[in-house]
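Let us practice reading a record.
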Amino acid sequence: MKKTTNPQRYPKLFTPGRIGTLEVRNRIVRAPCSSGMAAMDGAVTDRNIRHYTELARGRPGLLIVEYAFIDNDASKSAMCQIGCSSNEHIPGLAWLARTIQSYGVKAGIQLEHAGRQKFLGTRPIKAPSRIPWEELHAVGGEPPDELTWDEIQEIVKAFGDAAWRAKMAGFDFVEIHGAHGYLITNFLSPRTNRRTDWYGGSLENRMRFLMQVIADVRKKIGRNFPLGVRLSGTEYEPDGTTIEETVIVAQALEKAGVDVIHVSGGNHHQMHHQVSPLYVSNAHNAWAADAIKQAVDIPVIASGSLNTPELAESVLAAGKGDFVGLGRVLFADPYFPIKAETGLAEDIVPCIRCNDGCLDRSFKRFQAVRCTVNPDLGNEGMVCPTPLPPNFRVAVVGGGPGGMKAAEMLAARGGKVTLFERRKLGGMLIEGSAPSFKADLRLLMNQQSSRLKKLGVEVVYREVKPADLAKKGFDHVVVAIGGAPVDRAFPGSDRKNVLDGCAVLRGDDKAKVRVVVIGGGLVGCEVAGHMAEQGCTVSVVTRREDFMGASGDTGIGVEETNRTAMLELFAANKIAVRTGHHVVRVDGKGALFTDNKGRETLLPADTIVISSGFSGQPWFADELKKLGVPATAIGDCVQPRKIYDAILEGYDIGVRLGEVGSGGGCCA
């Protein structure tokens, strides 16, 4: 990496800082994010080491290792979670801490008890009150057992013992997890704490457990060892913890000897406020960090969707925090800090806040973490691409995210790559990024196209046919032409006021005042949101009963945090939704529909927008093979799916093509 340091570009971000006695090189804190890479018993694995090595090489000031369970009773939350519940965990933790520190990065670890929010769903489940976690209860899970007085004291002791182990392992910092709906939050929140004893009722009582934990931790690690607490500024629940109460808790923690408050928001019932998707505003919880910072003298870490250096710098410059916590952002690009520091910010692979890889395909499926834009995540050090043969010529047809990723990887291996694109780079990201609430996708388009330019990929802006490619003698062709819109004809579908959803997003056609969108998939919903923001009155009508779908094996459903946020966007813009309705015809009055019982409904409309989905386009690769041209199809032309699938398949063909025994590619 060529160093072109520009210290004036992000002066706040790269100023050294202090947390208690701990001096850190910059103001970037790697926020703890579960990876699912530990052993079943919580022991550190080689996979953990390789993962955190990459994060440390990116040079944040402080790297906080994901949450570790503190006892062998009910504290473990998730499969393959790191443990700090036994002295036998110390050797592995010491290996991990030392690995991080060897890069000049301070190493911290977060300590946690699951409380009622136990993803494993296995007994024992314990919480202050017998109130179930809604998501677990909905799939047949049992409510937690109410903690007894003696059990509470044992957990207090377990937190202190775990902190002592972290110190013995050589960590520089310990954070107590008091956010996101886990045990400490269960005590703090009136929504989940209905006790009538010393630990329930008033805020003083509800925060007593946390204060006892801090006292025991301080007794066992000493007054000068750096200690932090992560809090949700608010749970975003009408009967949950408020920012006013959290401010009081933060002030009490400062008096008790805590060195820093790490501010987030939400819980797993309100996960779109905790792990905010692209439909939710950036810097989503910075307001809460600001409120707490105004009330305490110790440093505050602001976190939540700070996915560009400019945004992180602005939070610090506005005085909303003393440090910034980056979680998913460093999944997307672990080198974010050093790229920003050395003048290479345009090379940062952006977190697009899709929550597809890191939540839907991993955490919610009990698998190790993955990332849509970073296929190396979870496989660090396992893929070692070999150089391509001299003068190896590759054509990539299609400049969407998958095609650009394939071109990037093949060029990085020394291939002579020509990318053919009939309009401009971006593919369906062009339409997908049109709504204001999907602006994060523009960051990805810019980064990918910039990377191709730096690697010297030749981009030819014209439509190309299989026969054209056959004449040019390419050693291999990667087909990434995307899916084709499904043609949906019905009486009146050829009227001038019937528009295509993608054309509306591109701005080719303008929807007017009263709009009916036919199709309740992701594109249809985004068209509806986009048109509502333009001042239109919008209705969405779908044949399906499961509006927006649900994530499944095909990958075409909508991840739950995105779905929840989209529903809130619909409510805010008063977008009406009708499920189970079939279009009969369109005429001068509007659109006529029937429901599943044959009842008719006429929706008056000035504009009808059709969004009927996409189908694959296998013909292009098939034709190339008939012409004797080695070809591999990737992305939506194989089967319409998501950005994750396109980039992963582009990556796979990019690193595997030309290897001995590779068979030519992932989808050949």
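A brief commentary: The first strand starts at residue 17 and ends at 19.
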